[in-house]
Amino acid sequence: MSASSVRARVLASPFAVALATLLFQLPFFDRWFSVMDEGHLLLFADLIQRGGQLYRDATCYPLPGAFYLLAGAFQLFGTSIEVSRWLVCLEFSAYAALGFVLLRRLVPTSWAWAGVALLWLHRAWAFPHWQIYSYSTTALLFQLASLVLLCRHLERGGMGALRGAGLLFGVGVFCKQDYGAAALLAACATLWLAARTQGGRAPRLFAEFLGAGALVGLLAALHFTAQGQLGRVVQQTALNHFIGMSSYEYPGMPSLWPLFRQDPSLRELGGVHQWVPGLIVAAGSDWKTLLESPLYLKTPLYDIAVKLGLVAPWLWLGVLGWRQWRMRTALRDPARQARALQERALFHFAAALLALGYLVKPQDYVHLAVLTSPLLLASVPWLHDALSPRPLARRAAQALLLAAGLWTGWLLYSMRVEHSAPLPGARAGVYAKPGQARMLGELVDYVRQTTPDGQAVGAMPYLPIALFLAERFAPHPASYIVWPFPEYPDRDQRIVDALEAQHTELVLYNFTQFPSLPPMQESAPALYAYLVDHYDVDRVFSESLLGLRVAALRRASPPAGTPLLRAPAKDGEIFAESYDGSRQRVTTRDRSTYLAQQVWPFRPVLALRPLPYGARSVLALPLHVPESGARLESAVGVHPDAWFHIPTSATTFEVRARDGTDSAVLFSRTLDPQRLLEDRGWFALDVDLAPYAGRDIVLELSTAASDPAGSSLAMGGFAEPRLQAASGAARSEAKPSEDQRNDPAR
Fold this sequence. Notes:
By secondary structure, the protein is an alpha+beta fold. Helix content is about 50%, strand content about 15%. The chain contains 29 helices and 19 strands. A hairpin with a 2-residue loop joins strand 14 (about 650-660) and strand 15. Mean pLDDT is about 90; it is low at about 730-745.
C-alpha cells in the first residue's frame, strides 16, 4: 500500500477526527465556569458518588443518566471541575467523529471534514454548551450515536444495528427526556419511510427499535423501585415539568414585527442577556462597548439581527426540506435508495430537534444554539451538490468558512486571556477571571472556616458551584436551586422546616440572579421572609463592581429594643432640605416617593430617597429620651439591586439631634457601593442619646445623593431604627468617634 493511500485512510478514520477535535479543544477547554448549570451537575454527581440519591436528596428535573456518568468519572479520576471538562471534551470529540461517520456515507471524505469544521465552529458558538458538562449535550451524543446505528441498519439491513440504535436512544432518554421525544419522532418517521420504500413491515421495525429503548426504561424503573423512589422520579421528571410550563411564564421568542424598528423587549437587561451569544460575553467586555455604540443606540440593526437570526434556521430547514422533496424519486431507486434514506434520517433528526427548541420554553440563544448542530450536518450534502460543480462559489464558501474560523479563534483566544487565574482548591482545575478566582476562593475559605465538615450550608436562590468547591451540601433537597415556581405547593415551608430542624448557621445568598427570572422575594416570598427574620448579613463577597455578588448570612438573634417607627406616616414629618438649609415640607400626597417601609436583604428598612445637588431628604421624628437615657441602633446601606447602577452615585447618611435651636450631627457616613466594593453591605449605626436624657428632641434621619442618578429609594436604607435602654456603663459623648461611625456591621 502506498504512503498516499495510508495517509488517505488515516484522514478518513473517525479516530483521526476525534483526535483532531480533542486537540482543537485543549487551548480553551478549561477556561470559564458556570455558577449554576455547571455547579448543579458537579454537586449532584458528587452527591451520588457519596452515596446520595437524586430526587430524594436533591430535586432534579432531568433523568439521571448524565449525573451517573459524571459520578462514575469522579469515582475513577477524582472529584473536580477539571475531570468534568475532560469528560465533555471526550464527549464532543466522539460527537464530531460520529458526525464524520454519518457524512462519510453521504459525501466525499474532504466534505465530511468540512462538516467537522462546521461542528468546531458550532462548539464555540453554542457556548457554554460543550464547554461545561451538561445533560443536554450528553443526551445529544447518545442520540447521534443512535442515529449512526439507525443509518447502518438502513444501509445494510439486519436487526442488530436497529436494536443497538434503540438501546442508545433509551440511554439518551435516560439523560434528557425532551431530547428523547424529538429523537423518537425523527426515528419513527424514518422507520415508517424505510418500511414503505424497502418493503419491510413497519410494526416490526418499530417493535425492534422501541423494544430495545423500552428495555432501558424498564431497567431504570426497576432501579428507582429498588431505591424506593419511583414516585419521586415521576413527580419531578414528568409532572413537575408540565406544572412548571403551565404555571410559569418562561422567556420566549420576541415578536417578529415590527422588524425594522427598535424593540424595547430586546433592549431590556433580560432581553440582552437572552439573545447575546455567550462566547462574545465570555471573551471580554467588547459586547458592552457595542451596546453603548451609536449602531446599537440609534439604529435597529441589533433588533433586526436577532429576529432574522431566529427566522434563519427555519428558512435553512425549508431549503433542505425542498431538497428532500426533490430527492423523493431516489427513495424508489435501488441504487440510490440507501443513501437517500440515510440523508432523510439525518434531515428528520435535524428538523425534530430544531422544532423542539422553538416549541419548548425557555427559548433563548443558548437553548436554541445547542440544537442546531444536526442542521449543520444535514446541510453538508446540499452544500456538496451545490458547490462542487461551481469552483468560484466553492472558493467563496471556503473563504467565508476561513473568516468565520479566524474570528471564532480570536474570540476563543480572548476568552483564554480573559480567564487566566486558576480557581483555588483541589476541586477546581479550571481558570477564571482574576476577580472571580479571588472572590470564589475567599468565599470557599469562609465557608470552610466557619462551618464544620458535614454541616449543611444554604445557597439560595442558586450557588451550587460554591457548595461543590467547599464540599458542603444543602439543608433540603429543594434548596439547591430555588426555582421561580415551587416543585411542591409547600416547597418554601419544607425548606424553612429543614433550616430550623438543622439549625443551619450559614446561608449564601446570590444577589446576581438571571434577569429573566423573578427575584426570590417574589418567587419564594415565605422563604425570603424567613431569611429576613432569622439571618443577618455577615459579609459581602464581590467579584468586581459589575460582577458576581454574594452575601454570607448568619443566624441572628431577634432584634432587641423598641422600634422607633411603628407608623412613620404619623410619627414624623419629611422635609426636602435645599443646599442653603431652607426646608420645604413634603405633602402627604408625595410622601411615598420620599419614604417607604420595605424589606431589603436582609432587614426591614426605612427607605429614604436621597436628594442631589447638595440637598437632603430629612425625616424628622419627635422623641422623648427616657430619664435613664437610651441608645439608637440601626444600620445604613444601599440596596444590592442598586450596586450595579450606571451612572453611579454615592449616598451620605446622617443622624442629627435638634434640641431647641441647637443641632448636633450624631452620625454621618457616605457609601459608594457602585464604585467601592467595601461599601457593599450593612454598616452599623449606634448612637448614645444620654446627653438628651429626660428631654424632648427631634431626631432627624437624612440622605443626600452625590449625583442625580442616586435619587431613588433603593439608594438610602436605614435598617429599622430601634431604641435600646441605657446600660449601666458610662455614657459616651453624643457624637460617636470616627472609628464608631466607620465600623461596618459584620
